[in-house]
Amino acid sequence: MSRPLRLLAPEAIDDLLLYRLSRLLAQGGGPVIRLCEGRHGITRREWRLLSLLAQAPGQSPSALAQRAQLDRARTSKAISSLCEKQLILRTTRPGDRRRVVLHLSERGAEIVQALFPEVCAINQQLLAALSPEQVALLDGLLNTLQAQADALPLPADLPKADRHRGKGRPPGSP
């Protein structure tokens, strides 16, 4: 049962905006994961990097990480995997052999061209529950929420989590 304005006065985790969005991503993203992994042999993270490189080729790994909103370590691991799969190419910048730029390989471009329409179809299936007016409203609301999220300050007094080997656990936890 839905409570009016439950997002403004959450009483349980099910009422939290970020949790609800996470559930939507998990459920709606399941078919995307199956397409990526089952049909094309890539992860959803790798798909994100491939499609962003298709949109703007010649990015540095750090620029791609920022655009994908991933940390550099995860991006580096995914880039290495994509290079091993021969889906992206690393080339050094002329005049600065320490700087690398990334491009899709021919095979990487073929995967993006094949997968993008399939992901769009899933996107359309989700949006089919809304009228065109609701879709336009949702788009505007998402833009507003993204701008608000971009402006949120990070608490300076909280340490950064160390997720390696369980070091991010609170003191005293097993």
UniProtKB/TrEMBL annotation:
**Which PROSITE patterns is this protein grouped with?**
HTH_MARR_2
Source superkingdom: Bacteria
All copies of domain HTH marR-type, residue ranges: 14-147
UniProt region (Disordered), positions on chain? 153-174
Q: Which Pfam families match?
A: MarR_2
| PANTHER family xref list | HTH-TYPE TRANSCRIPTIONAL REPRESSOR YETL, TRANSCRIPTIONAL REGULATOR, MARR FAMILY
Q: What is this protein called?
A: MarR family transcriptional regulator
State the organism's lineage.
Bacteria, Pseudomonadati, Pseudomonadota, Betaproteobacteria, Burkholderiales
